[in-house]
Amino acid sequence: MTKPRNYQTEAIIIKKVKLGEADRILTLYTPHLGKIQGVAKGIRRPRSKLAGHLELLTYSLVSLAHGRNLDIIIGSQTIESFLSLKSDLWLTSCALYATELINQFTADHIENQSLFWLLLETIRRLSEVGDIELVLRHYEMHLLNEVGYRPELMNCASCHSKLKPVTNVFSPSSGGVLCPKCSRIHTLTYPLSVNTLKVLRLLQNSDYETASKIKMNPDISREMENVITHYIEYLLERGVKSAVWLNILREQIKEETLNQVVISQ
Amino acid sequence: MNQDLSPIAGAVNRLIQEFNRLPGIGPKSAQRISYYLLRAPEEQTKLLADAIVSVKEKIKLCSICFNVTETDPCSICQNDQRDRSNICIVEQPQDILAVEHTKIYNGLYHVLHGAISPTEGVGTSDIKISELMNRLQDGSVKEVILATNTNLEGEQTAMYLNKLIAPLGINVTRLARGLPFGTELEYADDVTLTRAFEGRQRF
Predict the structure, then answer these.
(1) What is the pTM of this model?
(2) Pairing of strands A71-80, A34-40
C-alpha cells in the first residue's frame, strides 16, 4: 500500500528558522512521531493564514504533506495558545528554555509520548500561578529520566554504597552523587547538601502534584539549579543558550525586588 | 579538485561562487546570473560593480538611530520638521521603509538590529538597547512606540523594553495587534483575535 500523501498530528512548535524570502522551517514536537521538521510556506507574510497557528510555544493540530526533503505544512489549527504565558517576559523565557532542552536532548522521529505530555503539562503549569523554579526543576529531572540520563541519587555513583546523610558531591561525569570518599578522586564536582539531595530525590520520583507541595527556600533552589545546570551542560557538551538569558532576567528581577524594598522602607 | 581542469574559466567560476554565497541564490541561479553578465554590455557590469563597492564604502549606520545612511546623522534625524518627542522602535532598517511608506508617522526612529531571542543566544547586549537608553536620558522624548514584530521574539523584546523605559516616566505604546487588512476572520488564530477584541474601537 502506498503511503498517504497527507498526515495530521498534534504538535508543540519548539523551534523556527527562516528559509528564503517568506518561509520558515519549523521544528515540531509531537506525541506519536517524536520531533519532526516541516516547511511553512509564506508564513512570514502579513496575510499568512497559518502564522498565528504556528508561532513558537503554541499547541496546534498540524497537517503536513510529504515533501521530497522536508515535509510541507499545509494547515494548522491552534489547540492552546497560552496567551497569559506569552504576555509575560519571564514565563515566556522559561517556556523557551523548556523547548530548547527538548530540542537538544531528542533526535528526529523518535516517539516518546510521555516526554510530549511532560512538555505540554510544563507549559500549562508555567501559565498558571505557582513556584516557577520548582516547575522548571521538576521538568528537568523528569526530562533526564525520559531521555536516559536519570542521575543516580540513592547510591554513590562510583562505589555504589548507600549515601549517608552528610554533604555529598554531585559529579556530572559520573552521572550522579558521589560519597565523600569517592569525591576525592573525581574532579569537577559540586557540593550537595542533605536537604537539597532529599528534594532532588522527591522531584525525581514523584509527579508534579506531590512535588508542588514542597516549599523550597532560596538556598536549596539555587543549589539545585546549579547542580542540574552543570549536569545538563556536561551531557549536551555545550551551554544552554536560553539558560543564559534566564539568568540575566533572574538578576534583574532580584534587583527590582531589592529596589522595591528600599522604596517601601 | 585541480582548478585548471574545470570546464569553466577561472574568472567565471569565481563569479559563480561569489553569487552562490548570497542569500536565496543557489548554484543554478548563480550560473545563470554569471553567464548573463558575461554577455551583458560592459557598461552595465561596471554599474553593478560600482554599486556593490560603493554600498560598502559610503553606507554606514546613523550614530543616533542606527538606520543605514550615507550621511551621519541620517536624513530623518537631521530633519527639523520631524517631531523629536516621539521615537518609533523597529527591528530592522527595512521596517523604517514600511512605516515611512504609510506617511502617517512624523517622529524619529531607533533601529535595534535584531530582537531578543533566547534560544538563538541573542541577548540584550547584541542589539542596540543601551544606545536607546542613552538617547532617552535627556528627557526630551515623550513617547516611545514599540513597533517590533508581532512574533514571539518581537513581543519579548517589546515587553523587555517596556520594563526598562516605563520607569523613566516616558509614555510607552505598542502598535495595535489585530486582524490584518484583507484577511478572513475564520483563519485568525486565538492570540490575534483576542488582541483584536481587546483593541476594538468605536466605529
Answers:
(1) 0.86
(2) parallel
Q: ∠A144-A148-A149 over CA atoms, to 5°?
A: 55
Query: In this structure, what C-alpha cell is assigned to residue B14?
Result: 569565481
- Whether B43 has its CB under 8 Å from any CB of chain A: the answer is no
Helix (H, G, I), strand (E, B) or coil at A103: helix
Q: For A38-61, how does the pLDDT look when each residue is reduced to its tens digit (9 = 90+)?
A: 999 999 888 888 888 999 999 999
Q: B21: which residues sit within 8 A by CB, 6+ positions away?
A: none
Between chains, do B123 and A244 touch, taking CB under 8 Å as contact? yes
Average pLDDT over residues B94-112: 95
Name the minimum distance, in Å, from the CA of B92 to any CA of chain A. 15
Domains and CATH numbers, chain A: 6-83 (2.40.50.140), 130-264 (1.20.1440)
Report domain extents, chain B: 3-58, 71-197
Question: From B116, which residue of chain A is nearest by alpha-carbon distance?
Answer: A245
Binary contact (B116, A245; C-beta < 8 A) = yes
Q: Does B94 touch chain A (CB under 8 A)?
A: no
A55:B120 CB<8 A? no
Which of A250, A185, A195, A81 is CA-nearest to residue B189?
A: A81
Closest CA to A163 of A147, A145, A180, A140: A180
What distance in Å separates the CA atoms of residue A177 and residue A230, rounded to the nearest whole number?
A: 13
Any bridge partners for residue A28, and if so which?
A13, A36
Cell of A204: 525525581
* CATH 3.80.10.10 given to domain B3-58: no
B135-192 pLDDT, tens digit per residue, is 999 889 999 999 999 999 999 999 999 999 999 999 999 999 888 888 888 888 888 8
- Topology classification of domain B71-197: Dna Topoisomerase Vi A Subunit; Chain: A, domain 2 (3.40.1360)
DSSP structure string for A147-164: TT-PPB-SB-TTT-PBPP
Q: Does residue B4 register a pLDDT over 70?
A: no
Pairing of strands A34-40, A6-19: unpaired
What is the number of residues in chain B? 203
* Among B121, B160, B182, beta carbon nearest to A89: B160
Q: Which residues contact B106 (CB under 8 A, 6 or more apart)?
A: B81, B82, B83, B86
Q: In what order do the strands lie in the sheet with B143-146?
A: B107-111, B83-90, B143-146, B171-174
